[in-house]
Amino acid sequence: MPLQGKRALVTGSSRGIGRGIALKLAERGVNVAVHYYTQTEAANETVAQVRARGVKGCVIQADVTRPEDITRMFDQIKREFGRLDIFVSNARPELAAFYQPPLALTLDQWNAAVDSQAQAFLLGSQAAAALMPDGSRIIAISYSPSGRTGSWQPWVAMGASKAALDALARYFAVALAGRGITVNVISPGATDDSVVGRLPTEVFQAIKTWHESGWTPMRRVGTPADIGNAVALMCMDEAAFITGQTIHVDGGASIMDPVFPLPIQQG
């Protein structure tokens, strides 16, 4: 799919990973709808940067945990763009909305996570598919270790929701394969200006030090631009036969073995 002139919606793209995705798509000639919930100033800054790359951009405000807001968001996409070629489901609530360990988690916190991930992807993909020509792209931004680990205890609500999101992407990949619409998951590792960057400074610094010490073989954390590059790659014609897959964009962190200490793994 040559990207020049395509139309994309990136949810949660006022800052962080979402902004990185929006800007990388814009660099390749994609017109981008920048979605946000509360970060109005940041969203306007992102869309200004999108337009500075010579493409069209618009701003859409919506709470993706609310089905009626999702409907309104796609109605606006239809008015602004007429159709949609790329849908990137990336938005999530702020940490305070869901970040509690299992025994302290409230139902409201659980719902904030599930509704922003599994439900938002379900409804968003249904609405996106109705606006998409054959050969379009749907991409979910996830954290795939959530489906097999339980060690990051306060992540439980989001972790379970991301696992459901990953499963939904596979089902949609099958459902839309006949139209040539691919559905894939991008799973970032530790990334600057992302959810881990919102943790206390000393916590994020400890994470960076750990990955720079060798837990990530490339010895750094990722950047929003790294994730944006991966999304752009999955939107190209050359990726038309890749669907239902999870792409780990983490500098190799996901292939490390947690059983062995780093000095043993490093030889």
What's the quick description here?
By secondary structure, the protein is an alpha/beta fold. It contains 8 helices and 7 strands, in the order βαβαβαβαβαβααβα.
Describe the structure.
This protein is of the alpha/beta class. It has a single domain (7-265), classed as NAD(P)-binding Rossmann-like Domain (Rossmann fold, 3-Layer(aba) Sandwich), CATH 3.40.50. 43% of the residues lie in helices and 13% in strands. It is globular and about 55 Å long. The mean pLDDT is 95.
**What is the CATH topology?**
Rossmann fold
Based on CA inertia axes, which overall geometry fits? Answer: globular
Q: Count the strands?
A: 7
Q: For the CA atoms, what is the radius of gyration?
A: 18 Å
Overall mean pLDDT score?
A: 95
Write the layout of secondary structure elements.
Layout: E1 7-10, H1 16-27, E2 31-36, H2 40-52, E3 57-61, H3 67-81, E4 86-89, H4 107-131, E5 137-141, H5 156-176, E6 182-188, H6 201-215, H7 224-234, E7 246-249, H8 262-265
Helix pairs in contact: 1-2, 1-7, 3-4, 4-5
Q: Tags for this entry?
A:
267 residues; alpha/beta; Rossmann fold; seven-stranded parallel beta sheet; 7 strands; 43% helix; globular
